[in-house]
Amino acid sequence: MHRFDLDKNSVRELNQALHEHNGSKENSTWMVTNPKGKHAVAVGIDAPLEVTINGHVGYYCAGMNKQGRVVIDGNAGPGVAENMMSGLVRVTGSASQYAGATAHGGLLVIEGNASSRCGISMKGIDIVVRGSVGQMSAFMAQKGRLVICGDAGNALGDSLYEARIYVKGDVAGLGADCVEKPMTAEHEQELSELLEQAGVTGITVADFRRYGSARKLYNFDIDNVDAY
Amino acid sequence: MCGIVGLFSKSPAIENHLGELVSRMLIEMSERGPDSTGIAVYRDQAPGTMTKVTLLSRALEFDWETMAGEINRVFPGHNRVVPMENHAVVTTAARPARLREWIAREYPELHVNSTGAAIEIYKEKGLPSDVIKRFGVAQMQGTHALGHTRMATESAVTTEHSHPFSTGEDLCLVHNGSLSNHNRLRGFLKRRGIEFNTDNDSEVAAGYLTWRLREGMSLDEALQAALHDLDGFFTFAIGTGNGFAVLRDPIACKPAVMAETADWVAMASEYRAIAVLPGADRAERWEPEPAKVYSWSH
User: Fold this and answer.
1) pLDDT at B155
2) A10 pLDDT band (50/70/90 cuts)?
3) Which of A30, A104, A151, B47 could, after both became Cys, cross-link A2 (CB 3.0–4.6 A)?
4) How far is B120 from chain A (nearest CA, A)?
5) Of A80, A96, A212, A103, which is closest to residue A159 (Cα–Cα)?
C-alpha cells in the first residue's frame, strides 16, 4: 500500500503521484492521511486506483475522477466528485454543497447528508445519499439517477431534463417542471440495483417515490423551434 | 470571496489561548482574502459602567499621549489610553455617543472601530499573518473572537473598508458575500440617522442591524428581518457582548461550516480553519442551514 501524509507532502505531490498511473491498468491501494480540509485532494485520477482518504477534505475532492475508487473517511467540502466520469467516490460522513456537480458517470455514495444543490447539472452520474439533501438538488439535472434515502429540501429537480430522482422521505417542495411519476417494476428494479451497488441495506424500495421532468418548459416545446 | 472565522470559548483553557487559536484559524483563510485582515476580540471587560473605544488613526504617526491628556481634560475621570500601533483602546467613563461626537470634531483623522464594554476591533490592509503579528493578536486572551480576511469585490481596499464592522455597543459583523441593494438601503438608513464611513456593502448590513436594534428588536429578530430586507449573498458572523450568531442567506452559496466540542464553538468559511483547533477531529460538525439564525451566548 502507498501511504501519503499530507502533513509531510503537498496535495500537488499527491495528485502528481496519482497521475503517474493515468491511462494504465494500475490498481494499487493508497492511504492518504491528514487531509485537514485541504482542497482538490485526489483529483484527476484516470486509473483503477483504490484511494482511501482518512479525514475531512475541503473543496473539489476526487473531482474529474475516472475509474478510480476513492473513499473519503470523513466529511467532504463543496464540489466532491464534481465532473466525475466513471469509478466510485464514497463519503462516509456528510458532503457540502454541489456534490457530484456536472458529473458524467460513475457512482457517488454519501453515507451522511448532502447539502444544497446536490447533483446540480448532473449528466449521467448516479448519486446515492443515505441521509437527506438540501435545497435545489438536481437543479437542471440532465441524466443519471439521484437516490435520496432521507428528505429533500426545497425546489427539488428544478428545470430537470432526463435525470431520475428517487426519494424515500419528505420533499419540502418541487422545483419548476419537476413532478412525481409512478414507480413501476422497472423503477423498483433500477432502484434496488443502485442501493445494492452503493452498499445501502435495510431500506425498502417500495417506500420510495419517483420524480422526473414534466417536460413542459420552453426547451421541451417543439413550437419554440421556430424561434431559430 | 472572503474568509470568516469565529471562536467562542466554553472553557478557561480556550480563553487563555483565544488569540493564538483564532490567529491560526485566520491564517488558514489567507487565500480566501489576502487584501485585508480584521479581528474583533472580546476581552478585559471595562469596570462598572465604563466603555472601551477602539480607535484607528488614518495618519501613520499619531500622538496618542497628547490625545490622552485632552480626554482627561474634557472627560475628567479614570480614562486610560493604550496605544497599539496605529490603533488605541480608550477605556473611559464618558458616554460613547459624546466621546464619538468629540472625536469626530477634534480628531477627524481618527476612526472609531468599536465601542462597548468588552469589544476591541483591529483591522488593517495586508495578509493575516502580518496583521496578526503587528497587533499581537496571538497573545490576546478573551472569551470570543471573530475574524475576517477580505478579497475585495465591490469597493476599495483600504483599512476602513476592512471588516469587522461595528454595529453598535459590543456588536460587530463580518461578511462573506455581496449585497445588491446596498445603495438604496444606505440611503434609507442615512435618513434614519445611521452614519456610514465608506461605500462598502457590508457596512450597510452592519448599519442595518444597528438600526433594527435601536428600534427595539432583539438580535435574533433583527437577523430574521435582515433575511427579508437584504438582497444578495451573505454568510454573516455577528459578535455580541456575550456570544455570537451566524446567518446565511436563503440561497446559501457562500460557504460556512460549524463545529462544537465541550470546550468551544467555532464557525469558519471552510473546515480547514476549524481543523487547527484542539479536538476538531472529534467535534460535532455541521453546515449551517440557509436562512436560519444560529446563536450562542455565555
Assistant:
1) 85
2) very high
3) A30
4) 30
5) A212
Distance from CA of B33 to the nearest CA of A (A): 16
pLDDT along chain B (298 residues), means of 10: 95 97 97 95 95 92 93 92 95 91 94 96 96 97 97 87 90 95 97 92 94 93 96 96 94 96 97 96 93 90
H/E run at residue B189: helix B182-191
- Sheet of strand B87-92: strand arrangement: B80-84, B87-92, B51-57, B110-116
Q: Model ipTM?
A: 0.88
Q: Crossing angle for the helix pair B182-191 and B201-214, nearest 10 degrees?
A: 40
The angle that helices B219-229 and B201-214 make with each other, rounded to 10 degrees, is 130
pLDDT at position B43 is 97
Are the C-beta atoms of residues B174 and B4 closer than 8 Å to each other? yes
CB contact under 8 A, B281 and A55: yes
Picking from B252, B271, B290, the nearest residue to A77 by CB comes out as: B271
* C-alpha cell belonging to residue B91: 477605556
- Global confidence as pTM: 0.92
Nearest residue on chain A to B254, judged by CA atoms?
Answer: A97
From the candidates B30, B272, B292, which should be mutated to test the interface with A, based on the most A CB atoms within 10 A? B272
Q: Assign residue B72 a region: left if phi > 0, alpha if psi is -120 to 50, beta otherwise?
A: alpha
